[in-house]
Each structure stands twice: as C-alpha cells, then as structure tokens.
Amino acid sequence: YETAADLPPRPALLVGLCHLLALWPGTSRSLASMSGGLLAGLSTQAAADFAFLLAIPTLGTATVYELLKERHTLLADVGLYHMGIGLAVSFAVGWLVIAGFLRYLRSHGLGLFAIYRVVLALAVLWLWRL
C-alpha cells in the first residue's frame, strides 16, 4: 500500500496493535507503529506518515490531560504568555524535525533508526547491570 488511506481495516488494526507495544516501558512509539505499518504492507514512507498520524490523538490527549491537571501551577509559575511561546516554538521545531525525518526516510529507510534503537537498548541494559 502506498498511503495510509489505502490500508484496509484489518491491516490498520495490526498497526494499532503494534502501536500498543509502546505501552511497554522503553519501547519507541514511533518505531512500534512504523514496524506495524511495514508488517501490514505499507511502504516505508506511508508507515512513517501513519505513525505520526497515530501520534496526534495519543500525544494530544496526554498534553491536554497534563495541562488540565497542572493548570493552576502552570499559570502561576509560568504564565499564559510564556506557555504560548513554548507551545509555538515546540510546534515549529516538531514540524521541522518530523519533516526532516520523513525526508531522510525517503532516501535511507528505517535501517539506521532500528540499529540506533538496538544499540541504545543494549547500552541501557549494560548500564543497568552496573
């Protein structure tokens, strides 16, 4: 499948189930979703697009929850003006990073990203044993 819109419901469910693996501590949400997309038959680009689309409700809900939970502290300590600047800057930087990552994926694929995650996991396990 060339786009996430081409994905039938059953393979889309497989992507969602792989996304659930990110509930396991230390699991990369984006890599779990992209791996699920590849297993479902999506191209690398479409799998990455779908993974970032899945992030919107997940991360958006978590952000709204934290904002509501900590609103009094945030407004008193940070202020609405500074929170607005922080949100705008983080949105712009996030947009640029995601665009750069998707551009990288078009020419290089997920191999280096997967190697990075395995090396990082091994380093954490090694440090944890010390």
Compact description:
80% of the residues lie in helices and 0% in strands.
Note down, in words, how this protein is organized:
This protein is mostly helical and 130 residues long. It is 80% helix and 0% strand. It is built from 6 helices and no strands. It is globular, with a radius of gyration of 17 Å. 15% of the residues are buried. The model has no long low-confidence stretch (mean pLDDT 88).
Write the layout of secondary structure elements.
Layout lengths: L8 H12 L8 H11 L4 H26 L1 H7 L2 H29 L2 H19 L1
Helix pairs in contact: 1-2, 2-3, 3-5
Descriptive key words:
mainly alpha, 6 helices
Shape: globular
Determine the mean pLDDT: 88
Q: Major beta sheet, specifics?
A: none
Please work out how many helical segments DSSP would assign.
6
The helix content, as a percent range, equals over 70%
